[in-house]
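My current task is to audit a protein record that another person submitted. What it holds is a sequence and that sequence's fold in C-alpha cell form. Thanks in advance; the entry in question is below.
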Amino acid sequence: MTDRWSLNRGATMRSDGTVSFAVWAPSVERLSVVVRPDDREEEVELSRDGGGVWRGTASGLERGHDYVYRLDGARDRPDPVSRHQPAGVHGPSRIVAPGAFEWTDGDWRGLEMADLIIYELHVGTFTPAGTFTGVAERLPYLRELGVTAIELMPVAQFPGRRNWGYDGVHPYAPQDSYGGPDGLRRLVDAAHREGLGVILDVVYNHLGPEGNYLSEFGPYFTDRYVTPWGKAINFDGPDSDEVRRYFIDNARYWIREFHIDGLRLDAVHAIYDFGAVHILEEIGAAVHAEAASPGRRGLVIAESDLNDPRLTRSAERGGYALDAAWSDDFHHAVHAALTGEGRGYYVDFGDVSDVAKAVRDRFVLDGRYSKFRRRRHGTAAGDVPADRFVVFIQNHDQVGNRAQGERLSSLVSFEQRKLAAALLFLSPYVPLIFMGEEYGDEAPFLYFVDHGDEELLEAVRRGRQREFARFEWGDAIPDPGDAKTFERSRLDPDAADRSPHSELLDLYREAIAVRRAEPALRPGAARVEVESDPEAGWISLLLSHEERGALAVFNLGGATAGPEIVIPAGVWERRLATDDRAYGGPGAETPAALVSEGGKAVDVLMAGHSAALFIRKAG
C-alpha cells in the first residue's frame, strides 16, 4: 500500500524537529529563506534542483514562527504555498503544524450529489462576527432548516478584511481575519458533527491583483489567453507542469488537511488548457482519489457559462468526470419570467416555455441562438443525469452582480418568491440556497473590496461601471471600497422572526423536508415529464419513481388558472401549496386531492403565482 499524498511544497514540520522548505522558483538566480524565531532573524540558503525547485532545512523553529523567501538577495516575499498569512497578503508566512489539530469526525463519510441541499454563504457577512466561529454557531439553525451542506465563498487570503474572496492571492492560506487555518478546521469539524457537509469555493482561473507575487517566482501566468480579471493561469504552456501541480496540490490539500467534502471551481470557462488531458479532469481525479483514501466521498462542482455537458460526462464518454455543474439557465429562466427583466443576458429568456425547458432539458440554450452572445450557444445535455446539475433562484453572482445588489425579495411579490422557491425545490436538480434567501432577507449583497492601493480601487470602480452598461442600471453604484457597502451587506437574521419572513421560512423548511422524504423528488431517481401552456402561464412536472409519483404544478401567471393535466390513475393528495395560510397566503384554492381515472385530463385549480405538490396515494 502506498503512502497517502502529502503537501511537500512550502514549509513542512518534520518529526525530527526541523522544518523543510521547498519552493518552485525557476525565475530567480538565488533564493534563501529568512526565518524569524523569537524576534531574531536567520537566513538559510536554499539549493536548486534541475526542475527549478529550491530546497533547504532549518532547525530551531516551531509552529507560529514566521518566515519569508528572499529572492536574488533583494526581495522578501511570502511563500507561494503559505498555509497562514496573519499579517495580510504582503506580510510574512507562518509555519503551521496541520497534524496538531484534533479531529472528531472520524466516522464522517461525505455526501452524494443527489443528497445535497446546498446553502451558499459569505463568511464575512453571514454573521455579525464575520468569522468561521460565527458560522459554526449558526450550524444548528442550518441543520434545522434542512440543508445538507454549506458552501463557503472563497476563503483564500485576500487583501484587507473585506472581499468576496475572488481576489485571493494565497490559495493555501485561509483568510486570517476569518480565523485562519485552525478556525476553518474547527468549522468543518463542527459541521460534520451536525451532519452537514462543507463545500469550498476555489478560484483556479486567476489570482487577485494586490499581493500577487507568483510571477516573481516562475511562469504561473500566460499572455496567450485573457480573462475578465487579468492574466490567465499557465496550464498548457512552457513550464506549465509545475503550475498544474500547484493547483492540483491545492485541491488535494483542502480535502486532506481540512476534511473539505467538495470544491466548487469558479468560472471554469476562464480556465484555458488545450493539452490532451484537461486540468479539470486531473483536478477531479485528484479530489476523488484524495477523499477515497480515508474512505470518504469528495465532490467537484464546476461553475461554467458554456452549457457544455462534457464537464460532467464520464471520461469514457469524452468528459471530464466532474460531479456536477452550476446551471445558470435555470436561474435566468425563472428570474426573467417572474421579474420581466430583459436586459443583458436576460434577453435570451422571459417566456414560461423557457422555464419549462430548463426543468426538462437541463439547458435552455442547448445549441439555439443567443441574442446576448449573437451566436448559437451550448449543446444538449439530456443524457447527463439530473443530479449532475446545481440550480438556484439566487446566488452571490446573480445578486451581487446587480448594481444595487438587490435580492429577489426586492424585485418580486411575496407570492412570487414562494413560487420561485417551489420551482427550486420541486425541480429534478440539486438545489442551492443563497444565505438569507430562506426568510427573504432584504439586505442587499453588494460588491466590496478593501484594497490598500487607491489606483487599484479606482480601477475597480470604473470596471463595475463598464460591467453594468449592458444592463442599463445607471451610474449610482455603491462604492466597493467604502466600509459601509460591506456593512449594508450583512444579514439580518432577526427578520426571520417577523411576518412575512417567518412564513417564508416555514415554507422553505417544509419544502426541504418534503424533498428529503419523497423518493420521487431525489435528483436522478425519477422519470420526468414536463407539460406547459405558455399562454396560460402554467407548467406541470410529473416525477415517477418505482411505485411513487409526485406531481408539481406551477402557475406563473397572476390570475387563477385551471390547467388540465393527464396523470396516472389514482388518488393524488396535496402535500404542499404555496398559497396556504400557513405560508402567508390567502388560503389554498388548490384542491386537497386529485382523482384520476388514467388517460383523462384532471382539472387543477391554481391561484395566481402559486405552486402545489401532489403525491399519489399508495394502494
Q: What stands out?
A: The CA atoms of residues 369 and 375 lie 5 Å apart.
